[in-house]
Design brief:
The protein is an alpha+beta fold. Helices cover 25% and strands 22% of the residues. Strand 4, helix 3 and strand 5 form a beta-alpha-beta unit. Tetrahydrodeoxyuridine (THU) binds next to strand 2 and helix 2.
Amino acid sequence: MKEVKIETTLQVFDDLKELPEDVQNLMNKASVARDKAYAPYSKFLVGAAILLDNGEIITGSNQENASYPSGLCAERTAIYYAGAKYPKAKHLKMAIIAGSQTNPTTTPIPPCGACRQAISEYEVKQDAPIELYFMGETGKVVRSNSLANLLPFIFDKTVL
Ligand code: THU
């Protein structure tokens, strides 16, 4: 038997203002997208913004459905839109902002497992890391220099 230890490193910033201007701008775009979320069931609004290597910023928000599993998270709405619109572009950075309409969300909200898997597909496809930034409506911002930090031991094309 061999034990395998997997470690990960993230950076936590006290405030968005500590981050470079382009990241602040990306998070602001995610916040504007969040205002367009359709989340009448959970009342949990999420916005995502992706900076592509062609300079475009693609945004998305969560889109819910009366048949709950038919809804889609903000991150996947954005990343699939980016993939559909600019299939050759590399995804450089993704900003995510999330919070409940019913109680203030002041802690960073990480992307769910399904979104991590979806983002990981693009990281593998482009063979370059995607920087991730996520936060609640206010407060600390977490930075990960790659999706791989959030999803070690991934299922990807190499196992097919
Ligand atoms: N949600 C996202 O948009 N992204 C995530 O990573 C986690 C959850 C959405 C899905 C649903 O509309 C609401 O938040 C509550 O789960």
